[in-house]
């Protein structure tokens, strides 16, 4: 928790300048602040430290003639709360009742309940049937408005507007992009524990709006989002020959990725969405990494071993590929050029490492680690140093990054049940949350921020 | 052996063993892989898929993270190879499986490695390799689900599945 320029407000409210801004840019910002807001402070949550005290924030019910205003504010509050960075103040503690969200609130009423930020808003139905949603974000201690925006949308997209507003608040108060206006593709599981019925499904990142993409007839695994299009790649056992497919989310159109002589597994898109990297299982029992260019349909072999090379994931600049291999015995993480050059092992800890996934920021690689009878989700720097385990259990597997690189989703099985559920954990490892899904769920993959 | 006798003589251990045996759930028992286990010997028509499953044994098991054909598995595969050569019209698919104590992608590859090792062994015993397809289910089709080796050891397997017009 930080406020610029008002260190006297409390011992925890320290002067803080955005560390991530370069000096010149910071000067411009400082000049702007001085020019427009003399002697005022800016509410800023510093999330660059390891442990962050959640910021108390009051999110009032948006004014509307019906329940919708309350519903929208509830979705915003739930998003911010789940991030672990914000602590929404209980509405029962509110003193001022907002009747005009355009007017300055009585800041004293919000300071006294320790709400350091305040969100007000209104949702109105337009003549053309659309909704107009407006919000304002206030810094109660500085007594100023920090942000104010309005959005127009169809009534059924009200949750999406709430997520967009939550992202705006998150970005204004942390200085980093949010991740609430995103979706997750995953595998929905039903049926017996010996023979699961698996369906591809997609939902909002908070578990709402679940929609099924396949009917459960064929076993489907490991869906992954395209970084550039409303498209996923996944593995299906369709026709008794397990292969990688592409699925267009808007049209439902499907196509096979390549025509390989054996099973293909573990697909992932390149950062530009133009290639799929995957592993081909060969007749001799080896697995090697291949890419296929989706435009030219040409395939390129990246590894050439008699071992198992799989779980490939590109760096965000597309220049490197991280993957798992048991060429040295147990599965470990390796890194190579995107053309397959210069493979080198980067994980050296006890146990085995698999499912490496490069962070969208480029700074970290998330992985599943199996050691001492436990499965853990962890991160390491891209040279393999600085390993940190974020969560451990009987079986935690398959991390996927939120687009801002601060939160990971994965699936977790309790002992001996074959009953996976999805969870999220942030980079501090302190904010572990289960995602509510209608059935059992595994193999999550986070979308980029929606356009 | 000697150690087992000592343990078996101990009334505490006998009681413990009996209580464990009684408490053990059905899913933790070893899978039947021969006619004797199923009590079906003689009821299967020679040359039928049932004959293969109950009188020969359709599956072999593997050690943790291994695709080495164990001695017990070599015996089963030798019997399979004899039977498959006697009934050459069956199409053969070897399915490789892994236990749940690994990650999904690795287990798919490990299942393929087990299927390939099984196919190679059958080929070495005279079954034409071209007759045998391989397929991996990874850890997607466990036969037993619990949180101990008693289940996992049953899931690390390769199954020889017969198809096509055999008889």
From TrEMBL, chain B:
Residues 1-23 form the signal peptide. It is a lipid-anchor. The keyword Cell division applies. InterPro entries: Bact_OuterMem_StrucFunc, OMP_bac, OmpA-like, OMPA-like_CS, OmpA-like_sf, Pal, Pal_lipo_C. Keywords: Cell cycle, Cell division, Cell outer membrane, Lipoprotein, Membrane, Palmitate, Signal. GO terms for cellular component: cell outer membrane. Pfam families: OmpA. Residues 50-166 form the OmpA-like domain. It comes from the Bacteria. It is found in: Cell outer membrane. Its main location: membrane. SUPFAM superfamilies: OmpA-like. GO terms for biological process: cell division. NCBIfam families: Pal_lipo. HAMAP family: Pal (MF_02204). Belongs to the Pal lipoprotein family. PANTHER family: LIPOPROTEIN YIAD-RELATED, STATOR ELEMENT OF FLAGELLAR MOTOR COMPLEX. The Tol-Pal system is composed of five core proteins: the inner membrane proteins TolA, TolQ and TolR, the periplasmic protein TolB and the outer membrane protein Pal. They form a network linking the inner and outer membranes and the peptidoglycan layer. Part of the Tol-Pal system, which plays a role in outer membrane invagination during cell division and is important for maintaining outer membrane integrity. This is Peptidoglycan-associated lipoprotein. It comes from Phyllobacterium trifolii.
């Amino acid at each position: 928790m930080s406020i610029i320029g008002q260190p006297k407000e409390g011992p925890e409210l320290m002067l803080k300048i955005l560390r991530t801004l370069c000096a010149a840019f910071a000067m411009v910002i400082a000049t702007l602040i001085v020019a427009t807001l003399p002697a005022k402070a800016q509410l800023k949550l510093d999330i660059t430290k390891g442990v962050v005290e959640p910021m108390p924030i009051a999110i009032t019910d948006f004014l509307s003639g019906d329940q919708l205003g309350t519903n929208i504010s509830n979705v915003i509050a739930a998003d911010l709360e789940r991030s672990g960075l914000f602590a929404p103040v209980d509405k029962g503690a509110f003193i001022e009742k907002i009747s005009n969200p355009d007017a300055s609130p009585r800041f004293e009423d919000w300071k006294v309940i320790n709400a350091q930020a305040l969100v007000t808003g209104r949702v109105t139905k337009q003549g053309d049937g659309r909704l107009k949603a407006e919000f304002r974000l206030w810094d109660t201690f500085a007594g100023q408005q920090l942000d104010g925006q309005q959005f127009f949308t169809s009534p059924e997209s009200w949750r999406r507007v709430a997520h967009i507003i939550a992202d705006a608040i998150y970005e204004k108060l942390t200085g980093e992009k949010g991740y609430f206006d995103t979706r997750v593709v995953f595998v929905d599981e039903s049926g017996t524990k010996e023979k699961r019925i698996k369906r591809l499904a997609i939902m909002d990142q908070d578990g709402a709006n679940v929609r099924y993409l396949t009917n459960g007839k064929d076993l489907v695994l490991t869906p992954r989002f395209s970084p550039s299009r409303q498209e996923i790649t996944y593995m299906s056992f369709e026709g008794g020959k397990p292969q990688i497919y592409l699925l267009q989310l808007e049209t439902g159109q499907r196509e096979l990725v390549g025509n390989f002589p054996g099973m293909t597994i573990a697909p992932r898109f390149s950062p530009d969405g133009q290639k799929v990297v995957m592993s081909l299982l060969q007749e001799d029992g080896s697995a090697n990494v291949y890419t296929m260019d989706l435009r030219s349909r040409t395939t390129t072999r990246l590894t050439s071993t008699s071992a198992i090379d799989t779980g490939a994931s590109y760096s965000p600049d597309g220049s490197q590929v991280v993957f798992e291999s048991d060429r040295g015995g147990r599965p470990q993480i390796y890194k190579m050029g995107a053309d397959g050059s210069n493979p080198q092992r980067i994980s050296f800890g006890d146990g085995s490492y698999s499912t490496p996934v490069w962070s969208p920021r480029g700074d970290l690689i998330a992985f599943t680690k199996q050691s001492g009878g436990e499965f853990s989700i962890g991160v390491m720097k891209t040279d393999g140093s600085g390993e940190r385990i974020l969560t451990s259990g009987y079986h935690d597997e398959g991390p996927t990054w939120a687009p801002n690189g601060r939160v990971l989703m994965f699936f977790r099985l309790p002992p001996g049940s074959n009953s996976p559920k999805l969870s999220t954990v942030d980079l501090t490892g302190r904010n572990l949350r289960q995602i509510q899904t209608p059935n059992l769920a595994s193999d999550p993959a986070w979308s980029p921020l929606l356009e | 052996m000697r150690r087992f006798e000592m343990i078996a003589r101990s009334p505490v251990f006998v009681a413990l063993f009996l209580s464990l045996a009684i408490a053990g759930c059905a899913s933790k028992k070893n899978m039947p892989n021969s006619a004797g286990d199923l009590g079906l010997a003689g009821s299967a028509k020679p040359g039928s898929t049932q004959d293969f499953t109950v009188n020969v044994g359709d599956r072999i098991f593997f050690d943790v993270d291994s695709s080495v054909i164990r001695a017990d598995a070599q015996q089963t595969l030798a019997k399979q190879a004899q039977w498959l050569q006697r009934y050459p019209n069956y199409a053969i698919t070897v399915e490789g499986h892994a236990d749940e104590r690994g990650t999904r992608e690795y287990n798919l590859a490990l299942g393929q490695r087990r299927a390939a090792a099984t196919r190679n062994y059958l080929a070495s015993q005279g079954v034409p390799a071209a007759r045998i397809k391989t397929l991996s289910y990874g850890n997607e089709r466990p036969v037993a689900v619990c949180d101990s080796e008693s289940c996992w050891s049953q899931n690390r397997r390769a199954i020889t599945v017969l198809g096509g017009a055999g008889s």
